[in-house]
Structure formats: C-alpha cells, structure tokens
Design goal:
With 432 residues, the chain is mostly helical. The protein has one domain (22-416). It has helices spanning 27-48, 54-57, 65-77, 82-104, 108-129, 136-143, 154-180, 185-211, 214-229, 232-252, 262-289, 297-324, 328-342, 344-359, 372-394, 401-411. Helix 1 (27-48) packs antiparallel against helix 4 (82-104), helix 5 (108-129) packs antiparallel against helix 6 (136-143) and helix 13 crosses helix 15 (372-394). It is globular.
C-alpha cells in the first residue's frame, strides 16, 4: 500500500498553508471527534465535581449501589479510552496536514510549531483560569515530538507506538515488584507522604472549589495543575503512543481507500473488542482490590490491562463507527455528531465553562454534591444540548469560536468566520 505522506509530494508550485476548506473535511474524522467529545465529558464530569486526589487518598464520597455501578461502567467503558481516541486523531491530523503541506510545497515544520504554540497558549489559559484538568496544553507539548517521526517508516512508527503505550505499565510494574520485595525505607516513606498529601489535597479542593473566592479557586487550580504535571513521565508516553498510531494510519494511507480496507477495519474491530474486554476487566477489578497509594502487583496488573485495553477499546469504537457510517440509515443517525466534531475544541471548552459554573462556588456550588449517577444524567443533558447547538453553528459559520481563535493565532491574522452562500450549511462527504 502506498505511503500517503511520501507519495506525490513533487513539484507543485509553493503555496502558503491555509485552513482546510469546508468541502475538504473528512466526515468520518469529524464523527469520531464528536464521539470523543461525548466520552471525554462522560469521564471528566466526575472530576469537575470532586477532587482528582480522591482515589489516591483512598476516599470514596459516593458509595450507593447505583453510583458504584455507574462508576464501574464509566471506568470500564470510558476512562482513558476517549483521550486516547483524541490523541489518535491528533496524530492522524498531523499526517494529513503533512500531505497538504507537501502538495502545496509549503514549509510544514514551522506551520506545525506555530499551531502547537497557539494550542499551548489556549490550553494554559484553560488550565489556569477555567479547569485544571486541561488536556490541550499536554497535547501541544507532546505534539512537538511528532516532528521527530514525520520521515520515519510505518514499521518504525508502529514499534515506537507499542513501546510508548506499554512503558508506563512497565515502570509501574517495576516499582510494584521492588516494593513487594521489600523496597526501601525511603520509598516507603515517600508513598506514605503521597497518601497524606492526597488527603490534604482533597480537603483543600473541597474548601476552594466548593466555598472559595475566584482568587482562591485559581490558586487551587495552579496547585492541581502542578500536581498533575508531576506525573507527566507516567502518562505522556501513552499519549505519544496514540499520536504515533494516528501517524501510522496516515502514513499507510488507510483513509484514502476505506472500501479497500474493510477487511482490515473489521479485523481491528474484532481484536479491539476482545483485547479491550480482557484488559479493562483487569483494570476495573484491580482498582477494587488495590490501594493506589501503595504500589502492588495487583495494581500493576490493572495498569498493564489498561495499557493495552484502553487503546484496544478505543480502536473498537473508532472502527465500529466508521463501518456503521457507511450504511445510509446509520449515516443519517450519526451525522449530527460530525458537527460536534467539527467544533470539537469549542465544545470541549464549553463543557469546562458550563460544568465549572455548575460545580464551583462562583456558580451553583454543587462541588462534592453530585455522584456518578447524577453526573451521568448531567452528561447526557449537556451533550444533548451541544449536538443541536453545534449543527446550528456549522450551518452559519466556518469554525467554532475556539477553532477560529486557534487558526487565527496559527496564521497570524483573523480568519473569516461566516460561510459564503455558495458553501451551504453542510459539509460534503469525501468521495471514495
């Protein structure tokens, strides 16, 4: 199969990079982004209304049977699957942008760096002033590493992707084995101090987000962001691994001929479901029988299960949606999600604005009062609002507000927002 990135890059006249036109968008990718936005909200809802440190502190605020069942299902079906899907799409988008740059004879590296710096700025503002659980700045920082892989062969990229996905689990397993063998007094003391600090963070978060002023909430956000990035070495390899799988798909040119790759998609679907069930069962079961504050072999088994189970279930979701989208009946049913995906950045930021207003003290002050079951209802209600809003918006504008800001910062000038009459309200589907 020809490599899409390397083929046909020749001698077209040099043209500057420009935003993708409405008619150039790949509808299937917008569909997947829209689905990912739902899954990210499903997982994040629990972290909007409760401290990230709860699990590390070994504290459970909501232990009713319905809340426990919903928490288990979210952990099994969604946790780590949807930021993985977004990371995969980020890497695939990188590959497609390379193709466009080569076709235009444009300098891709400088364009992509500007794009990442703009995303880093948006993500930093989001993390420090809206919600500490931002993923945008993380994607931007790790995205710079993609530039080192743009000329690598697909086989090399696939090897690196596997290594990156398994590395955090192997590190955690090594630590767990060391602790099971007796460890060291210093390491034992460190983990004990981390558990105490987690409990302290739970109380600090409850006080700031539930009752504090905006200044106190901002101070807590800064503390929480710093705490998250202290674990950067443990989660950045898995994000990079999914970036690389997206790049691999782009390099193989699989999007160029979906009809010719249906057998491959179905194989990925089958294996993704099987591995996803096994891996995520190991993850959720180990979470019930291990203390995250103390590394153990049981906890390490859960990390290993998640390391291959989360990407596997992510690929099952992606291939299933792409295959369903080929059927006209399912295409009509799923098509509204594509508008959510076309405005994915705006919808992601909107979720943070709405949910922090619901949970934080400067809004309705629901912090610590909404369990997983009610959080699921809120997720469905908010996303049910975002679908028609997104479809209304894309019928009138080229970009969502967040996408417009990102593109304007990237290109150094304001981008036109309103659709021209000839462009119409919808996106033309890619011809196969």
């Amino acid at each position: 199969m020809a490599e899409a990135v390397e083929a046909g890059a020749a001698a077209a006249p040099a043209l500057p990079m420009a935003p993708v036109g409405v008619e150039e968008r790949v509808r299937e990718l917008d569909l997947l982004r829209g689905f990912a936005i739902f899954g990210i909200l499903l997982v994040n809802m629990g972290f909007f209304g409760a401290p990230l440190a709860l699990q590390g502190a070994g504290i459970r605020w909501f232990d009713g049977p319905v809340d426990l069942a919903v928490e288990w299902l979210i952990r099994f079906l969604a946790q780590s699957k949807f930021y993985s899907l977004f990371a995969f799409l980020f890497g695939l988008g990188f590959a497609l942008q390379m193709v466009r740059a080569q076709a235009r004879g444009a300098a891709f590296g400088s364009f992509f760096r500007r794009r990442l710096l703009a995303l880093l700025l948006i993500g930093t503002v989001h993390a420090l002033l809206i919600w500490m659980g931002d993923i945008l700045a993380t994607y931007a920082l790790i995205g710079f590493l993609l530039l080192f892989f743009r000329r690598r062969q697909p086989k090399t990229i696939a090897i690196w992707a596997v290594v990156c996905l398994m590395l955090p689990a192997l590190l955690m397993t090594g630590v767990a084995v060391y602790m099971e063998l007796g460890g060291s007094p210093e390491m034992t003391r460190t983990f004990a101090e981390m558990a105490v600090d987690a409990r302290r963070q739970v109380e600090s978060s409850r006080s700031a987000y539930g009752h504090g002023t905006f200044a106190q909430i901002t101070q807590q956000r800064v503390t929480d962001v710093a705490g998250l990035y202290s674990f950067f070495p443990f989660f950045f390899p898995s994000i990079l691994g999914m970036f690389l799988w997206g790049l691999w798909v782009g390099k193989r040119g699989l999007l160029n001929d979906l009809s010719g790759n249906l057998g491959f998609l179905r194989k990925v679907q089958r294996y993704g479901l099987a591995l996803g069930i096994v891996g995520n069962l190991a993850f959720v079961i180990s979470a019930e029988y291990s203390n995250p504050a103390t590394p153990s072999l049981v906890g390490a088994a859960g990390f290993i299960g998640l390391a291959f189970g989360a990407p596997a279930l992510c690929f099952f979701y992606a291939t299933t949606l792409v295959l369903l989208f080929r059927d006209p009946v399912w295409r009509r049913r799923l098509d509204p999600l594509a508008a959510v995906g076309r405005t994915a950045l705006s919808n992601y930021l909107l979720q943070s604005l709405v949910c922090t207003t619901l949970f934080y003290s400067y809004g309705l002050a629901w912090y610590g009062k909404v369990g997983p079951a009610l959080g699921l209802a809120l997720t469905l209600a908010l996303f049910a609002f975002q679908i028609p809003l997104s479809n209304w918006w894309v019928g009138r504008f080229r970009y969502g507000p967040g996408e417009w800001l990102w593109r304007s910062l990237t290109y150094g000038r304001p981008q036109p927002m309103r659709l021209a009459p000839a462009e119409g309200p919808s996106i033309s589907s890619r011809k196969e």
